[in-house]
Specification:
The chain is an alpha/beta fold. It is built from nine helices and ten strands.
Length: 298
């Protein structure tokens, strides 16, 4: 078996036996919806970096679109980790000792009640923050081809965004109904892509040799033995029930070559401040992905 760190390079340069080098396989990557749980995608991207693999295409939905756009614009998994940790991580002193640091509350700045416009939160502030790191303003400037999923609110159907400005597409893909304000783009009202295609591996090119899908929806259980959900838990978990049904049906029709579902448990939609816990829970899936890719590249 090839050493993991040299897998893709060996395929491209030959093995020293005089045999023609095999072309490196084309790997497509789909990053799924999941709110704060989408931070687990970062660990999966680190696997690609460690193995020296550059995806030939990325598709993303909701938080998967956010992380996918950062990666497609040229950032490494480690760089994305540093960028995301800016507004969400408690810092070296620990969360309890960092409650009063102003930078911990950067995420609060993204919340701007918009009760009259279809959502509690206006995504513009988050998009302005994201603009600092996405090193491309348009899809054709990205280092890796990217497809972003959104949903046409009035037509009730999937919309695939892969041309024009990148940031409005991201904002549309993460516009969870009732939480984020819907986005008007090209005379359409767009909402969260997770409502129609939570893990969009079916949008990867047909000529991919290996398709990888990362499902970060996770699981949830009652708190303190009380099976009655809170108001927001009822709303968000109802969305997850719908998303799980969509993904289960897609898996019956066409499975990706590698399907990774990190064991994320009891992480709520907006609990970005639990980044360290999300990374801890996702580490077994990082090892699973590394092993699966290394085996495919052997």
């Amino acid at each position: 078996m090839l050493m993991a760190g040299a897998a893709s390079r060996s395929l491209a340069t030959g093995d020293g036996t005089g045999q023609p080098a095999r072309p490196a396989p084309r790997v497509g990557l789909a990053l799924g919806a999941g709110g704060a749980k989408g931070l687990a995608h970062i660990l999966m991207l680190e696997v690609f970096d460690e193995l020296g693999i550059k995806p030939c295409a990325i598709s993303g939905s909701s938080m998967g679109a956010v992380i996918g756009a950062l990666y497609a614009s040229g950032l490494s998994g480690r760089q994305i980790h540093r960028f995301i940790n800016g507004p969400v991580a408690p810092g070296k002193r620990g969360w309890s000792n960092s409650l009063f640091r102003s930078d911990v509350f950067k995420w609060i700045d993204f919340i701007d009640p918009e009760l009259g416009s279809g959502g509690l939160i206006d995504g513009e502030n988050f998009i302005r923050y994201l603009r600092q790191a996405v090193h491309a303003s348009r899809f054709d400037q990205l280092a890796i081809p990217l497809k972003i999923v959104a949903a046409d609110f009035w037509e009730r159907r999937q919309v695939v965004l892969d041309s024009g400005p990148v940031l409005p597409a991201i904002q549309a893909s993460m516009a969870l109904p009732g939480l984020f304000t819907p986005v008007r783009l090209d005379d359409r009202v767009l909402v969260d892509g997770g409502t129609v295609n939570p893990v969009p591996w079916d949008l990867l090119p047909d000529d991919c040799d290996i398709t990888v899908a990362i499902d970060v929806m996770g699981t949830v259980s009652p708190e303190n033995g009380d099976a009655r959900p809170s108001f927001f838990d009822a709303i968000f978990n109802s969305v997850h029930i719908m998303q799980r049904a969509i993904v289960d049906e897609k898996l019956k029709l066409r499975r990706p070559d590698i399907y990774i579902r990190p064991p994320l448990s009891n992480i709520r939609m907006l609990e970005f401040f639990r980044a360290d816990e999300i990374y801890r829970q996702a580490r077994p899936a990082k090892r699973e992905l590394r092993d699966a890719l290394a085996k495919r590249l052997a």
